[in-house]
Amino acid sequence: MRLSSSFLPTLKEVPAEAQIASHRFMLRTGMVRQMSSGIYAWLPAGLRVLNKIADIVREEQDAINAQEVLMPTLQSADLWKRSGRYDAYGPEMLRIVDRHKRDLLYGPTNEEMITDIFDQFVTSYKGLPALLYQIQWKFRDEIRPRFGVMRGREFYMKDGYSFDLDYDSAVVTYHKMMLAYLRTFQRIGVKAIPMLADTGPIGGDLSHEFIILAPTGESGIFFDSAFAEQNWLEMPVDINDKDSLAAFFKRMTSFYAATDEKHDEAEWEKVPQERKLEGRGIEVGQIFYFGTKYTESMDVSVTGSDSKKIYPHMGSYGIGVSRLVGAIIESSHDENGIIWPDAVAPFKAVIINLGMKDQACKDVCEALYQTDPENFLYDDRDERAGAKFADADLMGHPWQIIVGPRGVAQNVVEVKRRKTGQRAEVPVDQVLDYLS
Ligand SMILES: Nc1ncnc2c1ncn2[C@@H]1O[C@H](COS(=O)(=O)NC(=O)[C@@H](N)CS)[C@@H](O)[C@H]1O
């Protein structure tokens, strides 16, 4: 994309209510625009990040044989009356009455709806297990939306749902999803630690939340640093072998990790002093096993091999896709701006032309840009060098390719790694290799 003709409005000042770095930087780099309290428009650079995160989430869900669906954002109140959550859910639920006076709601989550869909298509135990997911907008009328997209009212979530024959099978699914989550967050480029969690309005008695380390996080956390050193993408786990999955899960839960609600001092004392880490974190995902809570309350059953009625055991698995955009910035920025992990950056590199009146510079920039116009941002504005450098650091693309007349005269450009600040002189024809 060419910066001079793109809709990437950077701002010098931001509204006073933007208290934390991610909120300030997302507004200053024109990633989002608040349309009303807790409700945002996603502009080109922000949408590119949102879609890259969603694509990684999707790939790792597909890798454990989950199947993608897309449910409506608007739901009938009748569904929630069947499960008994219509009143229980409280003021966070946005209730809507249509022209025919029918009670609808903007879905905060979809356990009831997916259970109703399952009910219409699966009558026999042979239809189990079912593992479905969607990536869809949700609405929760938070009393105090804040921190930009991190605690919004309309937000983008991957929500997965599983149906299994019994508890043991449901636990295998839970283990699979745990592995998929660890792989997902590692690929996105953040350190997310799973911690035992309370279940809240979703229900059930087994739940883990995934916390990204960030000083502005709402949760206090205690964990064994050895956990953060694990490489989940290299972990030899066979997702079709329940013992392999159980061994992975046992290993994973052998490291101490707890939010302040669940912290156990006695257990904490067993962690070697040099591996004890305390901090704050942002919850970017949560998984739940809640058995037959919804299948029983909604009377959704299948016929077992002995022709008896069986209520399938369920779980649900959420990732805050839009929250992750803010959470990544919270965990990866400096005083000059965002430091995007490679996998989710809006663009791979920004080409900074310092010789807007120098034909040789323009030729080198154009040639580099044309090699990958989809993933290169070309700063072709008629701006001072200082302004271009400041904007490049602010927007946080992983690489900066700085093209100046002196360098071009020796057929080299300067390449800067945003994360480390490391600079190198690179021959023009080796830039692409250098970036890979
Ligand atoms: N107000 C919000 N703004 C942005 N993200 C949110 C908000 N509320 C929740 N999330 C994100 O959505 C994830 C899943 O939400 S949840 O309530 O924990 N789980 C569910 O809704 C389950 N139905 C999972 S399918 C959370 O981990 C969090 O990352």
Describe the SSE topology.
Elements: H1 21-28, E1 32-36, E2 39-42, H2 44-63, E3 67-68, E4 74-76, H3 77-83, H4 85-88, E5 94-97, E6 103-106, H5 111-121, E7 130-139, E8 154-164, H6 167-188, E9 192-196, E10 206-213, E11 219-224, H7 225-228, H8 242-252, E12 257-259, H9 265-269, E13 276-291, H10 293-297, E14 302-303, E15 309-310, E16 313-320, H11 321-331, E17 333-334, E18 337-338, E19 349-353, H12 359-371, E20 376-379, H13 385-395, E21 399-403, H14 405-409, E22 412-417, E23 423-427, H15 431-435
Parallel strand pairs: 3-7, 19-20, 19-21
Antiparallel strand pairs: 1-2, 4-6, 5-6, 7-8, 8-16, 9-10, 10-13, 11-12, 11-13, 13-16, 14-15, 17-18, 21-22, 22-23
Helix pairs in contact: 1-11, 2-6, 2-11, 6-8
The chain binds 5'-O-(N-(L-cysteinyl)-sulfamoyl)adenosine (5CA).
Describe it.
It is a single chain. The chain has helices at residues 21-28, 44-63, 77-83, 85-88, 111-121, 167-188, 225-228, 242-252, 265-269, 293-297, 321-331, 359-371, 385-395, 405-409, 431-435; strands at 32-36, 39-42, 67-68, 74-76, 94-97, 103-106, 130-139, 154-164, 192-196, 206-213, 219-224, 257-259, 276-291, 302-303, 309-310, 313-320, 333-334, 337-338, 349-353, 376-379, 399-403, 412-417, 423-427. It has 436 residues and is of the alpha+beta class. The strands form six sheets. Strands 3, 7, 8, 9, 10, 11, 12, 13 and 16 form a nine-stranded mixed β-sheet that branches. Strands 20-19-21-22-23 form a five-stranded mixed β-sheet, with helices on both faces. A three-stranded antiparallel β-sheet has the order 4-6-5. Helix 1 crosses helix 11, helix 2 (44-63) packs across helix 11 and helix 6 packs across helix 8 (242-252). The longest helix has 22 residues, at 167-188. 5'-O-(N-(L-cysteinyl)-sulfamoyl)adenosine binds at residues 109, 140, 142, 151-152, 155, 157, 159, 202, 283-286, 316-318, 320, 322-323.
